[in-house]
Amino acid sequence: MSTTTEFKIKKVQKLSAEVQAASALRQGILDGEIPPATRLTEIRMAEQLGVSRATIRTAFHQLAQEGLIDQIPYTGWAVMSLSAHDAWELYTLRASLEALASKLVATGIREKGTTSPAIARLHEVFSDLEVACKSRKRKRIAEADFALHRTIIDLAGHRRLGEQYAMVEQQIRIYIASSDALLDPASIIEQHRPIVTAISAGDVERAVQAAVEHNEQEGGKLVAHLEAQE
Fold it and tell me: Which CATH architecture has domain 84-229?
């Protein structure tokens, strides 16, 4: 007598052409393959990706919602270019969102103590950042940097906070890559250590302070750099 065994595996996802096109364009922008301020046309992108103009138009609108491209009236579309004001808006917003997340995660750890699984997860992503920084590969560093901040948001267990962060997270990834490019990789590790240490210790007040200080200090450096270029 035979029996049927069910396995716990994810089902294959069928992605629409619009989703695939948006994903390809998004990755190209984040990787720097499509530089800031690049003009984008529906015809050219449709030909390059092998899809219809309607598909590209939908993808463009999705990326515009994420803040990665801008629609220029009567002209077309262009990849976002990070200005000093953009950087200021992003770091002040991040300071608020990430301070709240740090507070919530640290509070949870304080209540659970050393049994909190959040501690192990934090140390894991921080270790990934250390390894990335030692590799001195800028793309890898930026990805690990973002992953650490995104993990803190996720560990907060606050759905609406996560949703608000998701609205700007692609812009934050560009911001982080721009900020990290100005710094020595070793200093990037030390920037984040106080945040991880405070949260892991369940020190709520210090965790909030560390999150705010990190965003304000590094954000200020990026803003000054961009202002000098402008």
Answer: Up-down Bundle (1.20)
What residues contact 158, with CB distance under 8 A and at least 6 apart? 100, 101, 104
**d(C-alpha 68, C-alpha 173), whole Å:** 10
Condensed to tens digits (0 to 9), the pLDDT of residues 115-165 reads: 899 999 999 999 999 999 999 999 999 999 999 999 999 999 999 999 999
Architecture of domain 17-79: Orthogonal Bundle (1.10)
List of residues 6+ apart from 140 with CB closer than 8 A: 132
